[in-house]
From TrEMBL, chain A:
Name of protein: FAD-dependent pyridine nucleotide-disulfide oxidoreductase
GO MF term set: oxidoreductase activity
Organism superkingdom: Bacteria
Name of a matching Pfam family: Pyr_redox_2
Domain FAD/NAD(P)-binding: 7-256
InterPro entries from the UniProt entry: BFD-like_2Fe2S-bd_dom_sf, FAD/NAD-bd_sf, FAD/NAD-binding_dom, Metab_Enz_Cyan_OpOx_G3PDH
Swiss-Prot/TrEMBL keywords: Oxidoreductase
From TrEMBL, chain B:
Domain FAD dependent oxidoreductase: 8-359
GO cellular component: cytoplasm
Record-given protein name: FAD dependent oxidoreductase
InterPro entries the record matches: FAD-dep_OxRdtase (IPR006076), FAD/NAD-bd_sf (IPR036188)
Gene source species: Celeribacter baekdonensis B30
One Pfam family this sequence matches: DAO
Transmembrane segments: none
PANTHER family for this protein: FAD-DEPENDENT OXIDOREDUCTASE DOMAIN-CONTAINING PROTEIN 1 (PTHR13847:SF287), SARCOSINE DEHYDROGENASE-RELATED (PTHR13847)
UniProtKB/TrEMBL annotation, chain C:
Signal peptide: none
Top-rank lineage group of the source organism: Bacteria
Pfam entry (one): Fer2_4
UniProt key word Oxidoreductase: yes
Molecular function GO terms recorded: iron-sulfur cluster binding; oxidoreductase activity
Keywords: Oxidoreductase
Protein name in the entry: Ferredoxin
Entry keyword annotation includes Acyltransferase: no
InterPro entries in the record: 2Fe-2S-bd_N, 2Fe-2S_ferredoxin-like_sf
């Protein structure tokens, strides 16, 4: 029999809620995630050993309970990558529970990716995204050895710092590019649950005496005597902080690489949660439910909800947060030296990019194609997730982010063996001829 | 709109052919402009594997032209030639897995000998005796050729355009042209240009411009791997199935097996290709086809099973109905020259075609070697075979 | 309960239930997982399988993200730049 069960990619809050909604309507969705457990990044502690990690929030517990209820009807495939969905309507999953099949609907719930601004030294071992530290904390209750420093901007930094404090590993400091505490009145317009959470985090940081250096840039990282030296700058005043591990975070963006442009076939495809619009975990659950209802509607199983606009409350909250964390206009963006690595995959620097732009501007425009083929930006295994935001910003007058993105599959690198080993349920087994 | 500019030569198409014509024409002192709807190497030249191969050509004229182009490119890669660092000599390995493929290798051997080509057979024998370790048991026979090369289409395109002292315009597409006694009026998406002569080398973009030159778009899917472990030896050259030769010849491949090429890149990555489809587009790739290609590739080189695939893409080649490129002045329009329909052979033929077209433009004399490629061959036919 | 270990380039490293290769190495103070072919260090960066900066070679699995792969007892894990890989991969 040809397998046509609906596919949900990503087992975070949006994907789990979508799976619950589809199952409740009598469908048997396939839910795939490349991580070894459910929860996505935000609820990564759902896959942790009990008692090791920070306590689960109430929402996480409810979500898990609801998912446990429908678990027998969901084909959960963990440690399995979603590799591709082609115009013929074939989906390819690879890894532990890989397969090829023809889902009659697809929901992408692939969450967010962290935006991390390139800085000299950001490729050193020991420098990671702040989110990576949080995942380690949430899944195993541990953090890397030694002194920790958080830097960048955005509300997630404070959540992570507070969780570090709770784990007994307070960071040396939080270096904040923006100046969110400058506008207490604006902050008071945030919805109550957000404010409560923020107050709890800030309280914990204050009690632990964690310095929050706002309006400060982390301009450069180097190694000295086995330590990482963070060079900071605040209105022209320089300082150095010696640590062992640095977590960087400059906000969140949709993790929608490769999941939209090519999908023009007959199969209904929806995006849900942060990969559609970065509005956080509460909105994500709501959106997962909504996407599932749209699938049901498309498959004529039930009347669907017509409205697809996200809940305006969540949009307002994010807009307000963006304003709060906006970089003060007096602070100029740090002038990066030319040897700053921009593309971490192919080791291409800002100087390489400038040179390409300059060589071209003597004659004519540099095309996105040239930046990819000749300059290698976006051509590495991360497919530009780390660099293209910045390449697009630096070449804004000639190329667009959309042109720079190849949007090619596989969505992430997959082993040839895994592609070949994936059982094929796109054809009737009696007619199979491969192998 | 007033004419904006006047040139000896306007070239529509900044692919490897247009770029080679541009450089060769500026070497002869012509004032040249190159326009392109997108930019340099934006279509087939940018999507190609970069194999400069004589062995894969049809015996006879095409193999001779390819060989002449290869010898000329080899010269341009020496000393401080324009292709230095871009054209890399390397061996080619062509293998057989079946009786029809082995017969194709025999035909190849005869062709290289009968036509006295510069590409020679270094070794012909069982898989175990070849210079590549770890070949799959599917492979029964391998021929190692010497004299072929690797040249990435986009690198050669950029090298030609960088060195050519000419004006470049993109995005600017050729929309129409009007030959007259004074030269050619060229209507582009960004206004009018005047030139004495026009070269149309815009690959599949040529299709709409020259309705009397019948062409088809033939797409191919390609797969790129990761760099692999540092310890893994890179292939010394491409590993090509003999079925690939059959695919390009008029006979077709019958039951020879899936044509597959495993092409090493200098990064340690490998490029696995390629299909030949009459209905695909630049954006169309599909899982089933890619899996068949990979299955075939792993049968030839089992260690590929451990590589990770980072990207799958498709390129579109412009092909003529009789399988020969279309090169030369248009019938009745001596000031308009077209160069298209290379179906992937543009990388190999670009050096020669650029030189010959530039010579034709500068002197009015065209090479008798290219006579068979003239676009006039279609209008002289009674009916075009579909 | 005896402590379980993986073998990192031949050296035993303890791991806890639920540990990924990355978290076990990180707890042992190992932040650099060798050099990538572009000469940049292999190390944890994004932590969620996107950036491909933490690839290692895992016995029985092949090249994989250290941040996504759970530890398995006595499993041999090597850095991609470790040349001893040659012997194990081609014998």
């Amino acid at each position: 029999m040809i397998d046509t069960r609906p596919l949900i990619v990503g087992a975070g809050p949006a994907g789990l809620r979508a799976a619950i909604t589809l199952s409740d309507a009598g469908l048997h969705p396939v839910l795939v995630d490349h991580a070894p457990g459910i929860g996505g990044a935000v609820y990564a502690n759902l896959r942790a050993q009990p008692n090791l990690t920070p306590k689960l929030t109430r929402e996480a517990c409810i979500l898990r309970q609801d998912f446990e209820r429908v678990r027998p009807r969901v084909d959960l495939r963990l440690s399995t990558a979603f590799a591709a969905f082609d115009q013929a309507g074939t989906a390819l999953l690879t890894g532990q529970a890989g397969m090829m099949f023809k889902p009659r609907a697809v929901i992408f719930a692939t969450g967010a990716r962290e935006r991390i601004q390139p800085r000299p030294g950001w490729t050193l071992a020991g420098v990671s995204s702040a989110g990576a530290l949080q995942i380690a904390l949430k899944t195993t209750g541990t953090l890397p050895l030694g002194r920790l420093l958080l830097a960048g901007t955005g509300p997630l930094l404070y959540a992570i710092a507070a969780q570090m404090v709770a784990a007994g590993r307070a960071p040396v400091a939080v270096i904040e590019t923006g100046n969110p505490l400058r506008h207490p009145l604006m902050a008071l317009r945030l919805p109550a649950p957000v404010l409560t959470e923020a107050a709890r985090y800030m309280g914990r940081l204050l009690l632990a005496g964690v310095p929050i250096l706002s309006g400060t840039d982390l301009t450069r990282i180097e190694t000295r005597n086995g330590a990482l030296i963070a060079h900071t700058s605040r209105q022209g005043r320089w300082a150095e902080i010696a640590v062992d591990h640095i977590g960087l975070h400059d906000g969140l963006a949709r993790n929608d690489f490769g999941i939209s442009a090519e999908m023009t076939g007959q199969t209904p495809v929806f995006q849900a949660g942060d990969c559609r619009s970065v509005l956080g975990r509460w909105a994500a659950e709501d959106d997962g439910k909504r996407a599932a209802e749209q699938v049901l509607h498309a498959l004529k199983a039930t009347p669907g909800r017509a409205a697809i606009a996200p809940d305006q409350r969540f949009v307002k909250t994010q807009t307000l947060l963006a304003k709060l964390f906006a970089r003060a206009p007096s602070l100029a963006a740090p002038d990066l030296p030319d040897d700053t690595v921009i593309c971490r995959c192919e080791n291409r620097s800002l100087g390489d990019l400038k040179q390409a732009l300059q060589a071209a501007s003597e004659q004519t425009q540099t095309t996105a194609r040239t930046l990819r083929l000749t300059e290698r930006f976006g051509m590495g295994p991360c497919q530009g997730r780390q660099c293209l935001d910045w390449v697009a910003a630096l070449t804004a007058d000639t190329t667009s982010f959309a042109d720079l993105r190849g949007n090619r599959w596989p969505i992430k690198p997959v082993r040839v063996r895994d592609i070949l080993d994936a059982p094929d349920f796109t054809v009737d087994p009696s007619h199979q001829d491969l192998k | 709109m007033q004419p904006t500019d006047s040139y000896d030569l306007v070239i529509a198409g900044a692919g490897i052919i247009g770029a080679s014509v541009a450089w060769h024409a500026t070497q002869r002192g012509l004032r040249v402009a190159v326009i392109d709807a997108k930019g340099p190497a934006a279509a087939a030249s940018g999507a190609s594997d970069g194999a400069v191969s004589v062995a894969s050509k049809r015996p006879g004229l095409m193999a001779n032209l390819a060989d002449a182009s290869l010898c000329y490119a080899r010269e341009m890669a020496q000393h401080n030639g324009i292709l230095k660092g871009i054209f890399h000599p390397r061996p080619t390995f062509i293998f057989a897995r079946s009786a029809p493929e082995s017969a194709a290798l025999d035909r190849l051997t005869r062709m290289l000998h009968d036509q006295s080509l510069s590409v020679t057979i270094h070794q012909d024998g069982a898989a175990q005796t070849s210079a590549i370790s770890g070949l799959g048991k599917d492979i029964t026979r391998v021929i190692e050729l010497q004299g072929e090369a690797h040249m990435l289409g986009y690198q050669a395109t950029h090298a030609y355009l960088r060195a050519a002292k000419c004006d470049l315009f993109w995005p600017r597409s050729l929309e129409a042209y009007e030959p007259g006694p004074e030269g050619v009026r060229v209507f582009t998406s960004a206004g009018e240009m005047n030139c004495a002569q026009l070269v149309i080398a815009s690959g599949i973009g040529t299709m709409g411009l020259l309705p009397n030159v019948p062409m088809i778009a033939r797409s191919g899917q390609l797969i790129v791997s990761d760099r692999g472990p540092a310890s893994e030896p890179n292939l010394p050259g491409p590993l090509t199935s003999a079925a690939y030769l059959l695919d390009k010849t008029a006979n077709g491949r019958g039951d020879a097996g899936l044509p597959v090429v495993i092409d090493p890149l200098h990064t340690g990555q490998v490029l696995i290709g390629s299909t030949r489809e009459d209905h695909g587009t630049e954006r169309q790739t599909d899982i089933a086809t890619v899996r068949r290609l990979l299955h075939s590739a792993v049968g030839c080189l089992p260690r590929l099973a451990e590589r990770r695939i980072i990207r799958v893409f498709a390129g579109v080649r412009s092909a003529s109905l009789d399988g020969l490129p279309i090169v030369g002045a248009l019938p009745e329009e001596p000031n308009v020259v077209c160069a298209t329909g290379f179906e992937g052979d543009g990388i190999c033929l670009s050096a020669l075609i650029g030189r010959e077209i530039a010579a034709h433009l500068a002197t009015g004399q065209s090479s008798p070697d290219l006579a068979a490629l003239t676009p006039g061959r279609f209008s002289s036919q009674e009916a075009i075979p579909a | 309960m005896s402590v379980q270990t993986i073998l990192w380039n031949g050296t035993p490293i303890a791991f806890l239930p639920g540990d990924t290769i990355a978290s076990a190495l990180s707890r042992a103070g190992i932040t650099e997982f060798g050099l990538r072919q572009t000469a940049l260090p292999a190390a944890i960066f994004c932590g969620i399988g996107q950036c491909q900066n933490c690839l290692v070679s895992i016995e029985g699995i092949g090249v994989a993200e250290a941040c996504l792969t759970l530890c398995d007892a006595a499993q041999s894990v090597r850095s991609l730049s470790d040349h001893r890989l040659t012997e194990s991969a081609h014998d």
